[in-house]
Design a protein that fits this description.
The structure holds two protein chains of two kinds. Chain A is an all-alpha fold. Chain A has helices at about 5-35, 55-60, 60-95, 100-105, 110, 115-125, 130-140, 155-180, 185-195, 200-225, 230-235, 245-255, 260-290. Chain A has one domain: MetI-like (MetI-like fold, Orthogonal Bundle). The longest helix of chain A is centred in the first third of the chain and has 34 residues, at about 5-35. The longest helix of chain B has about 35 residues, at about 70-105. Chain B is mainly alpha-helical. In chain B, helix 4 (about 70-105) packs parallel to helix 7 (about 145-165), helix 5 packs antiparallel against helix 7 and helix 7 packs antiparallel against helix 10. The chains are: A mainly alpha, B mainly alpha. Chain A: Belongs to the binding-protein-dependent transport system permease family. Chain A: Keywords: Cell membrane, Membrane, Transmembrane, Transmembrane helix, Transport.
């Protein structure tokens, strides 16, 4: 069979997927670009061409800047915590002890819990009147009176970060554990004979095996955290006083609550651009790390 | 193996206990809330274990009496099943031929990266035109419309999973059959697809879980019992004026049950999927 026929056949086989992708991704994305240059409303008016007005308004407005800071802080804090706790948990699970298999199976639990259920669960735990966190902290004596964890701008974002971290650190742990189990036994044994301490062993013997998979986990988690919507929507809807309003929540409000499809679209594209920059930067990092080891 | 000092062993067990507690405590509490009476849940100091186990909420939510809280819950449960089921079947159907083509034809493999790249798109970038499009087609608040939209997530995902599955099946088996004069559709039907059955099943389950968990599009594109999914129903409960927190917890337990069971059963596939994805980079 000739090469061109094989290539043509491949494209023919991919046709159904391509049609679907163009219909549900390609066309909407292009239409978002078109809308972003108009003053279209979500329902009714088609809108007229307004050039870069939407972008100027969005980028110059304090709402966008504040949401960008909130989102960045959410992503950096939750992903950093997930990485650190995840690796520590993996190091633990890589030790020999009774119940290790059961504990590893347990790590599936937060991962499998739907995000909306996770958000609901933590919302109940943080409840200002009857929540378990208030009850536990009062009974231990750490706080005197019940607090409204999600109702105060000073604590709401941190409360969200904890909830996100609880759901996602086990995934990092499982990825790191799989990488740890790929470290050859004789290398760790040899480093012991050579008298390497625990820290040096981690830094020079184990880390090279962990770096690649962890970097991938870091990329995916950061992008996910940057897009966060479900958790915030269910727990705080962006409040109190907009202290947890992330970029996705802001787009939702602009395009759907206020029905300003045009400026909502421009905001959505700015978010898309930011995520793309993140993804590309990380891809370069991953390739570099893969080349180094 | 190195000999461990008793102190180190004690440290390991203490850490393991702590990790188990951190993971289990929130989930257990969700379950305990679902079986505690409203009085126990609003007691101060809080009753950490109910005086009497109260299973009535499970009956309430799963009852199909008209206009009860249960009818709404069961309707959303069925909607979730329908949407996730349809979207998964459609995604697998379009993913099989394309994943096979990409796996066997190096000259078009770049297209797979384009497909995967769309997976990183934030849903907000597509939401407005999708909303307008569904409105034009009369597919807002419809399980069919929502299933169609879910293809934005499921189609790239399943293609990617299936492609690595086909990669693991040696090309030589197919070439041998081709020399014997078998047509392509025969080769796929008789040889490749049966060999790929396990990976197809895994992909379908993961896709189903993704659709089951989805919230953003469901929130935007559904508005009542005809199409509202479970995640939206739970968010409504959590954000609404329901005064019985146990009822919210029960809905959460029921919604979490299928994915948790699937997750535990598929532990092995999940972990090997994580590793291969992670190591390949």
């Amino acid at each position: 069979m000739s090469g061109t026929w094989i290539t043509t056949r491949a494209w023919l086989l991919m046709l159904p997927l391509l049609i679907v992708m163009i219909a549900v991704i390609g066309w909407p994305l292009l239409d978002t670009v078109r809308l972003s240059f108009t003053d279209a409303k979500l329902v009714g008016t088609e809108g007229t061409f307004v050039g870069l007005d939407n972008y100027a308004k969005v980028l110059g407005g304090s709402n966008f800047q504040r949401a960008l800071v909130t989102t960045t802080w959410f992503a950096v804090a939750s992903v950093t915590a997930e990485m650190v706790i995840g690796v520590l948990a993996a190091l633990l699970l890589n030790q020999q002890f009774r119940g290790r298999t059961a504990l590893r199976a347990l790590m599936i639990l937060p991962w499998a819990l739907p995000t909306v259920v996770n958000a609901t669960l933590w919302r109940l735990i943080y409840n200002p009147e009857y929540g378990a966190l208030n009850a536990a902290l009062t009974q231990i004596g750490l706080i005197d009176s019940y607090r409204s964890w999600l109702g105060e701008p000073s604590s709401a974002l941190t409360a969200l970060i904890v909830a996100d971290c609880w759901k996602n650190f086990p995934l990092v742990a499982l990825i790191a554990l799989a990488a740890l189990q790929a470290v050859p036994r004789d290398i760790t044994a040899a480093s012991l004979v050579d008298g390497a301490g625990p820290f040096n062993r981690f830094r020079y013997v184990i880390m090279p095996y962990l770096a690649g998979p962890l970097l991938v986990a870091l990329v995916l988690r950061t992008i996910e955290a940057f897009k966060v919507f479900d958790l915030v929507w269910v727990m705080t809807r962006g409040g109190p006083a907009n202290s947890t309003r992330t970029l996705s929540i802001l787009v939702y409000q602009e395009a759907f609550s206020f029905q300003r499809a045009g400026s909502g679209a421009s905001l959505a594209l700015i978010v898309t651009l930011l995520v793309t920059v993140l993804a590309v930067a990380y891809a370069a990092l991953v390739r570099k790390a893969a080349g180094a080891t | 193996m190195e000999r461990q000092s008793p102190l180190f062993t004690a440290f390991i067990y203490a850490s393991a206990l702590l990790l188990a507690a951190v993971i289990l405590a929130p989930v257990l509490w969700l379950f305990i809330m679902s079986i505690s009476s409203a009085a126990d849940l609003s007691a101060k100091p809080l009753n950490w274990w109910p005086d009497e186990i109260d299973l009535s909420r499970y009956g309430l939510l799963l009852s199909t009496l008209e206009n009860s809280a249960g009818a709404a819950f069961v309707a959303s449960l069925l909607n979730s099943l329908k949407v996730a089921g349809m979207a998964t079947l459609a995604a697998i159907a379009v993913a099989i031929p394309s994943a096979w083509a990409v796996s066997r034809t190096p000259s078009v493999s770049w297209s797979l990266y384009a497909v995967i790249a769309t997976y990183m798109l934030p849903p907000v970038a597509l939401a407005v035109p999708l909303y307008m499009g569904l409105a034009t087609l009369g597919l807002l608040n419809s399980v069919f419309g929502l299933a169609l939209v879910y293809l934005t997530i499921l189609a790239p995902f399943t293609t990617w999973l299936l492609k690595s599955g086909f990669d693991a099946i040696p090309k030589e088996i197919e070439s041998a059959a081709m020399i014997d004069g078998a047509r392509l559709d025969q080769i796929l039907r008789i040889i490749t697809l049966p060999l790929a059955a396990p990976v197809m099943a895994t992909s379908a389950l993961f896709a189903f879980l993704l659709a089951w968990d989805e919230f953003f599009y469901a929130l935007l594109f559904t508005s009542d019992l005809r199409a509202k999914t479970l995640t939206v129903a739970i968010a409504d409960l959590a954000g609404g004026r329901v005064s019985d927190y146990g009822l919210i917890a029960t809905a959460g337990v029921l919604a979490a049950l299928p994915p948790v069971l699937i997750g535990l059963i598929m532990q092995k596939a999940l972990i090997s999927g994580l590793t291969s994805g992670g190591v390949k980079g």
